[in-house]
Amino acid sequence: MRIDFYHLRTSPVEKALPQLMERAMQTGLRVVVMAASEDRVESLGSVLWTHNPDSWLPHGSAKNGAAADQPIWLTDCDENPNGAKLLFLTDGMASDRLSEFDRCFDLFDGNDVDATAAARTRWTTAKTDGHDLHYWQQTEAGWKEQGV
């Protein structure tokens, strides 16, 4: 499985996630976004509704229900109730269900020393497990894939 690590340096996940969701929706594939708490799920849901008045990112969470109907499912649980093929991990989350997805995106705050150290640990584990790893660094001009 391919895992892409996204090193957030110039903006927080609240700014980066909607842009990545717009790209994900262009693929026609369903998405699960995993966050650290119910409050964080609700916060990210608000961000997806309000980030751009000219964009619409249809999504839901346990609060809304109807998971099977949601193109983007926001959760604080390790689940895939909408049959998603893309998994976005935020807040240092990890999943034991990687085999259910075609691709995983691990977004981490590169300005937080602890978050960066935890991402390095997840990278090492993923490498040991034989995943196809890619590292993207956020710059003022956008995302740049770095060789590792």
Strand order of the largest sheet: 3-4-2-5-6-1-7-8
Q: Helicity range of the residues?
A: 25-40%
Annotation, overall tally of beta strands: 8
Tell me the strand percentage band. 25-35%
Summed over residues and divided by their number, the pLDDT gives a mean of 96
**Annotated CATH homologous superfamily:** DNA polymerase III subunit chi
Name the helix and strand elements from N-terminus to C-terminus, one letter apiece: EHEHEEEEHEE
Low-confidence stretches: none
Task: Record keyword descriptors for this entry.
single chain, 148 residues, Rossmann fold, 8-stranded mixed sheet, 29% helix, 28% strand
Provide structural commentary.
With 148 residues, this protein is an alpha/beta fold. It has a single domain (2-146), classed as 3-Layer(aba) Sandwich (Rossmann fold), CATH 3.40.50. It has helices spanning 13-26, 38-50, 113-128, and strands at residues 2-8, 31-34, 59-61, 72-75, 86-89, 103-109, 132-139, 142-146. Strands 3-4-2-5-6-1-7-8 form an eight-stranded mixed β-sheet, sandwiched between helices. It starts with a strand and ends with a strand. The model has no long low-confidence stretch (mean pLDDT 96).
